[in-house]
Amino acid sequence: MFMKCIALLILSAVYHLSLLSVQRVTAQDGPVRIADRLYKVSESRGGNVVFLVTDDGVIVVDAGTYPAQGRRIGEQVATVTDKPIKYILLTHYHWDHTAGLVSFPGSPVIIGHDHISAHLKRNESRIKNSIEKDLPAQIDELKKNIDRYKKNHDTNLVGAEKKLKDLQNYLDEMNTARVIYPSVTFNESMTIYAGHDTVRLIYPGPAHTRCNILVHFVNQRTVHMGDMLFHGRVPYIIWPDGSNTENWIDQLQKVMAWDIDLVIPGHGEITDKSGLQKKINYLTSLRQAVRNAIQKGRTLEQMQNEITLPEFKHLEWPQLLKQNIESVYNEMTGSNKTTN
Q1: Which of 116, 142, 164, 334 has the lowest tally of Cβ within 10 angstroms?
Q2: Torsion on CA atoms 325, 326, 328, 329, rounded to nearest 10
Q3: Domain locations in the chain?
Q4: How far is CA 285 from the centre of its chain?
């Protein structure tokens, strides 16, 4: 069931990523200043990308959602400063946070957790499958639908033709894809001193993945949570990636005690500590609902049909709830301990 969920997510993600592949940076969609010398890249509609301009160079967090985005992030940095990009910090390995590494300008030092390289290795086979199987299959299916729409004068024709163009553009984009590995990794923590700025990299243990890190911009009183925070949407919890919701909650609570004003999620709008509390509430409710169902002897399938979490119906990406239930079930029962 996990692989089925992953396949569905990939199909959905590929379409949304394809829309990004044809965008160009323009004056009106340049970087947005969110704190002192800290900017959010406006094009990062996948994982949120930010950069800090320091006396010693630019520090970028995450690398973009598709291969060419690294270059476009560089273009946005250049509208703010002529300093080179010195470091790229990876919050975790997922493709929507690492794909742009292949096209970043210059020779930045790429930093991630000790576990990230083993996970990145898995992206190589996923890229190959996308290029050789997934995307061509979607394109062939769309072409068949378009032929049928033309014959029936179906109003879906225009949308399907646009989607076909987007997918073809994305296939071209994916042919440039390549997994790039960090040159520097760390285990528990690492601190970057860049001029007057201090940036702390912290490994909180397995939460969203086994390789997730937090990036604390000390001078800016800001933290980039990576995908340990999905703000305004249901989080992506996947057991084979090492998700651990019990530790996830504990670590969110620890960050609540930090001296910070701004919280940057991996996905969603920038928030403050209230965003952390909302995610704690979601994960706590999810765990309690699954625990109650286990105690009642419900099967996984029954849980996925019965657990609805109505108090979180307003969140985007509700389709992820069933997968979240499966992940927490596996976490609590020790089932399905696969890393595929």
Answers
A1: 334
A2: 110
A3: 16-22+29-227, 229-258+273-340
A4: 23
CATH 3.60.15.30 fits 16-22+29-227, yes or no: yes
Which parts of the chain are beta strand (E)?
Answer: 32-35, 38-40, 50-54, 57-61, 85-89, 109-113, 184-186, 189-194, 197-202, 214-217, 222-224, 262-264
* C-alpha separations of 335 from 209, 215, 288 in Å: 17, 32, 18
Report the amino acid identity of residue 270: I
What is the tens place of the pLDDT at every residue in 154-195? 999 999 999 999 999 989 988 988 999 999 999 999 999 999
H or E segment to which residue 183 belongs: none
Q: Are strands 85-89 and 109-113 parallel, antiparallel or unpaired?
A: parallel
Question: Is the Cβ–Cβ distance between 187 and 205 less than 8 Å?
Answer: no
Q: Residues 283-296: what's their mean pLDDT?
A: 98
β 32-35/109-113 pair status: unpaired
Give the model's pLDDT for residue 28: 44
For the record, the structure tokens of 269 come out as: 């709008």
Q: Specify the range with the lowest mean pLDDT, choosing from 11-15, 93-97, 329-333.
A: 11-15
Q: Please report, as a single letter, which amino acid is at residue 89.
A: L
